[in-house]
Amino acid sequence: MKTHLSNLKTLLPVSAAAWIGLASTVAASTYYVDLGPNNGLDGTTTPASGGNQWNNLTSGSNTTLLTDYSVSNLIDSTGNSSSISISATGVRANGYRNGGLLTPDSALLGEFAYSTATGDYFFSEFSTMTLTISGLTLGATYDLTLFATRTTDGDRNTLYTVTDDSGSSSLVLQTSGTGAGNAANPTGNNDDFAIFTGLTPNASGEITLTVTGNEGTQYGYLGAMSINETIPEPSSIGLAVLGGLLAFGRRRRA
């Protein structure tokens, strides 16, 4: 440590902002979201489970109609409230009775392995479902982990496109058909995610996600997701070091 501080003295021309950036820590939070109906037959909400709190973006019923839903002030995995909201447009909902994953394996899905989260889902049908994630912190970065499944013999692939401050990127996840899962559920995804990392919100504090069938596939699915937030914040130690360096520089100039 002494050697490090000594070396810092030779770099006094570096700006204060640069030093704050170098001497920083991060605050990280994770938000879990269950998407789907809440009628008891096709889906229910996911409560606090396994030490994690969940948010629920729910339709209230099974529906084949295009509808809009939203959830505000997401809580993180420890129950702390936030300014983050999600609004979803172009939504259809289904689940327990139509191919949802009712016996998720924690060895494969980790914190997503709750039947209430994996057993129901939102979907699009020859259309586009759009989720707008708002109330995000400018300067923070976000990772999105997306899970979807629909057990059925026909091959179905979902195209996810995320748009953030730097542009758009896409991933495809096989939800259904041969090879979608492992031996325990060979025609429905039970072991894979679509993951976007290092996303930055636009000037309005938003990131958008669209969900549709890929290359002519009729259906696109989204059943559960997590939002991992990383916010840089100045370290008190880093600021103290910076103050000392500036004082040293002033003495030298005097």
Automatic annotation (TrEMBL):
Record domain Ice-binding protein C-terminal: where: 230-253
Keywords on record: Signal
Signal peptide: 1-28
Lineage: superkingdom: Bacteria
Matching InterPro entries: Ice-binding_C
Ubl conjugation in keyword set: no
Pfam families linked: PEP-CTERM (PF07589)
NCBIfam families the record matches: PEP_CTERM (TIGR02595)
Protein name according to UniProt: PEP-CTERM sorting domain-containing protein
Origin species: Luteolibacter pohnpeiensis
Taxonomic lineage of the native organism: Bacteria, Pseudomonadati, Verrucomicrobiota, Verrucomicrobiia, Verrucomicrobiales
